[in-house]
Amino acid sequence: MNTLSIDNRAFAPTVPLLGANGWIIAPVEPRDGLVALLREWLRRRGHEFETDNDSEVAARYFAHRLGEGATLAEALEAGLSDLDGFYTFTMGTRDGFAVLRDGIACKPAIMAETDRYVAFGSEYRALAGLPGIENARIWEPEPATVYFWER
Fold first, then answer.
1. Would residue 8 count as lying in a domain?
2. Per-residue confidence at 33, pLDDT binned at 50, 70, 90?
3. Helix, strand or coil for residue 123?
4. Which end of the chain offers a freer environment for a tag, N or C, measured as fewer CB atoms within 10 Å?
């Protein structure tokens, strides 16, 4: 299994983290005050941070919810009320894949779906080389809506 070593504490906007339930990838730009409160809330519950990156806070938040027994969809639903800011989350576990955008949906997101795959990108160009893309259903996820696919 691939893991990512993070040496730079101000790492770029997407930090893949491997939680107990699988990969969690969380690009995020929440409000600074909320991130600080959430980081402290998670520290009090035993979480340690490797970076100062907001994405890691969000990823560890979702890992915490999953660790409490929430399903991927339930964890993302909780995020709608607990997180603030502009974000698009894509998350995967052994059992599924999910996408969530904030209530304004100002971060770019595009989906491609066929009977063989579901793909996510910030622009169509990222999906253009996929096999069968010309026959895929291409769409933009709605704001504040959890999309979930199971194996």
1. no
2. low
3. coil
4. N
What's the one-letter identity of residue 72? L
Q: Can you give the residue range of the structural domain that contains 53? A: 17-103+142-150
Query: For 134-147, what is each residue's pLDDT tens digit?
Result: 999 999 999 999 99
Using CA atoms, how far residue 65 sits from 51, 59, 69, 76, 104, in Å, is 20, 10, 7, 9, 23
What six digits make up the tokens of 4? 């990512």
Q: If you write DSSP's letter for every residue of 94-116 in order, what string do you get?
A: SSEEEEEE-SS--S--EEEE-SS
Query: Where do we find the tokens 């069968």?
Result: 132
Identity of residue 27: P
Quick check: helix, strand or coil at residue 89? Answer: strand
CA 146, CA 92: separation in Å to the nearest integer? 13
More confident residue, 66 or 6: 66
CATH of the domain at 67: 3.60.20.10
